Amino acid sequence: MSNRETTKTDVILIGAGIMSATLGSLLKELVPDWKITVFEKLASAGEESSNEWNNAGTGHSALCELNYTVQKPDGSIDISKAVQVNEQFQVSRQFWSYLVQRNLIRNPQDFIMPLPHLSFVRGEQDVTFLKKRFEALSHNPLFQGMEFSDDPDKLMEWIPLMMKDRKSDEPVAATKIDSGTDVNFGALTRMLFDHLKSKNVDIHYKHKVDDIRRSSDGSWELKVRNIDSGTVQRYHSKFVFIGAGGGSLPLLQKTGIPESKHIGGFPVSGLFLVCNKPEVVAQHHAKVYGKAAVGAPPMSVPHLDTRFIDNKKSLLFGPFAGFSPKFLKTGSNFDLLGSVKPNNVITMLAAGAKNVALTKYLIQQLMLSKEKRIEELRDFIPNAKSEDWDIVVAGQRVQVIKDTAAGKGTLQFGTEVISAADGSIAALLGASPGASTAVSVMLEVMSRCFPQHIKAWEPKIKEMIPSYGVSLLKKPELIDEIHHSTARTLGLSQLQAVGV
């Protein structure tokens, strides 16, 4: 059943995840009279990649993630990516703090908790790398408060669960910074959509966008199907944001914009081991990141995390990478095949040829038994018992494949915004660091898509995000001010006032 009548709206957001929630919340503060409409194919907000069980819940600020600090051929450490990721997380914290201060969202302890972030390495070569990394970061004001130790007694204080029964003949080391966070992005997403609903945003759950077409006047017509009733409604909007996680690429391809050509996607699934045994959970209070295996994608860096979900503390270890042709956890087994088009088939084939090592790694990961996964866990917890840990399937991630200066079919491991030349439509593709950078990424979307408004919006943006348009490293006095104010507002410990 189809209804040819069209409904007009100013902004359409596709997908009820953290990205759409953030963009909608920003726009409602800047232009409260704009009519915003949201379509989500699932029954509620934050059920795919944003869901708390579908991601690691790390407030990514490069405090412990070793893949953001690359060792150069001359042995020095490049910290530029770490600084960028850290500054992006500062932007998110400032916006969340603004929302809490104005009672637009409440109870920040339900979505963010203070938690030490540690990097942990084994072996002489990695210990040397970690010490160099510490020396490169510890003098940077964004990373103040970081400590380094290769003393087993000190490490026993920091991470007792990981050091107990560990063989003493292998060099080990860690860095620790007390100002990290655990973030429940699912809870935050739901809070933001509750806020948007109170601001008269039209949110349609169980509604699937079947098609997106350009109208003769340059606006966009969406064909939207009510999953329960099967009825079809058409919506017109001058601006559309596609924030549908792994579902973004197929929708972007439907738009036909030139920018959507020669782009592919490679889906990677994930598993975690989860422990809810109180006597084990009580022995660990940190997020501890190690080094990725050779050939592993950056999103597969092993880490042992304390998590706070529904006011309950648990431990999570992983991720273990896997492969599924689905682009979403609730997607179709034909998603990958359906994304191959005449304009991207060479790009996709080139990516396959370039990433034989990654393919081999994924196959090996798929073949792992639970006991093999427990063996990997024992690199972190030497006396881990299989019966204390359960396997949880995490969310799907779709890595971007595109033609770049590095050649055809280059696999991208970041978060990427694709937008039309006229700014009328934008899509978010990619994965890590993802949710942590949501506010920075959505500010980028706004600057690309609403350049005619940005100058008028700037005073309000700076009210919400005091560091907007400023490099924190060029204004170190602003770092302390932001750290203190956001830590106080978000209810984080006093340790948060020093460092990120």
Automatic annotation (TrEMBL):
It comes from the Bacteria. Its EC number is 1.1.5.4. Pathway: Carbohydrate metabolism; tricarboxylic acid cycle; oxaloacetate from (S)-malate (quinone route): step 1/1. Its cofactor is FAD. One of its GO terms (biological process) is tricarboxylic acid cycle. Gene3D superfamilies: D-Amino Acid Oxidase, subunit A, domain 2 (3.30.9.10), FAD/NAD(P)-binding domain (3.50.50.60). One of its GO terms (molecular function) is (S)-2-hydroxyglutarate dehydrogenase activity. It catalyses: (S)-malate + a quinone = a quinol + oxaloacetate. Keywords: FAD, Flavoprotein, Oxidoreductase, Tricarboxylic acid cycle. Belongs to the MQO family. This is Probable malate:quinone oxidoreductase.
